[in-house]
Amino acid sequence: MDQLIRIMSEVRPDIDFTTAEDLIDDDILDSFDIISIVNEVNEEFGIEINVNDLLPENFNTAAALYELIEKLRG
Q1: Cα Rg of the chain, angstroms
Q2: Could you give the angle at the alpha carbon of 31 between the alpha carbons of 11 and 55, nearest 5°?
Q3: In CATH terms, is domain 2-73 a member of 1.10.1200.10?
Q4: Contact 47/41 with Cβ under 8 angstroms?
Q5: Which of 7, 14, 62, 74 could disulfide-pair with 40, CB 3.0 to 4.6 Å?
Q6: Hey, where are the domains in the chain?
């Protein structure tokens, strides 16, 4: 989880991802942020987040994104 928080914080240092919620629903992250995070996460964790995974519920919190990463890592 620390790796993920670091990645997200590099993309948007103005957000405290350890406590932030509704990142998508409240328009805190935009599409460019999502693309940047997905690219970094794919590289860092050796996974491939595909278009079917680009759902708000997977990106509203760091914890939700981490769950997706764990699922994709198998």
Answers
A1: 11
A2: 105
A3: yes
A4: yes
A5: 7
A6: 2-73
